[in-house]
Each structure stands twice: as structure tokens, then as C-alpha cells.
TrEMBL record:
Disulfide bonds join 63-83. Residues 1-83 form the Disintegrin domain. PANTHER family: ADAM A DISINTEGRIN AND METALLOPROTEASE DOMAIN, ADAM METALLOPROTEASE. InterPro entries: Disintegrin_dom (IPR001762), Disintegrin_dom_sf (IPR036436). This is Disintegrin domain-containing protein. It holds the Pfam family Disintegrin. Keywords: Disulfide bond. The gene is 20196070.
Length: 83
């Protein structure tokens, strides 16, 4: 797509790492030329994406720790890359 590389996931794109650092968007999981997931990948961004496997983390895995006594931890759903 013409907009591939702008850092936004546009129509027809699975992912778009743009100029993001590797800890935010995995180039192992996202083809930066086509802005499509690499073969076998399910995700390329997000706290619930395992950048080692390019797969979604399992439901119940903690993606954000408790910050104080008024807070609760956040967990992955197993169906989304977002925390």
C-alpha cells in the first residue's frame, strides 16, 4: 500500500512499524515493505503480542502490573494484542 511505513495501520495493512522502535513494533512479525504480518504471525504490536513468537499471549497473562493499592493488574484476553 502507498501509505505503508507511515506508522498507522491503514486499510489493507496488518501492521505498520513506520519508525517505531523494535520494542513497540516487531519487524520480525511485520514485513516493513508490505505492512503485512510475516508468515505465521498473528501480531506485531501491543503488550499482549509475544515478539519472540509473533503470537498473541495467552488469556490471563499479566500485561500491566499493579501500580498502587487503588489499582488492579491488567491481563491479556488471548484474542487481542492490546492489554
Amino acid at each position: 500500500p502507498a501509505s505503508c511505513g507511515n506508522g498507522l495501520i491503514d486499510d489493507g495493512e496488518d501492521c505498520d512499524c513506520g519508525s517505531f522502535k523494535e520494542e513497540i513494533c516487531s519487524r520480525q512479525c511485520c514485513n516493513t515493505t508490505t505492512c503485512m504480518f510475516t508468515p505465521g504471525s498473528e501480531c506485531a504490536t501491543g503488550l499482549c503480542c509475544d515478539f519472540n513468537t509473533c503470537k498473541l499471549k495467552l488469556a490471563g497473562e499479566i500485561c500491566r502490573e499493579v501500580k498502587d493499592e487503588c489499582d488492579i493488574e491488567d491481563k491479556c484476553s488471548g484474542t487481542s494484542n492490546l492489554c
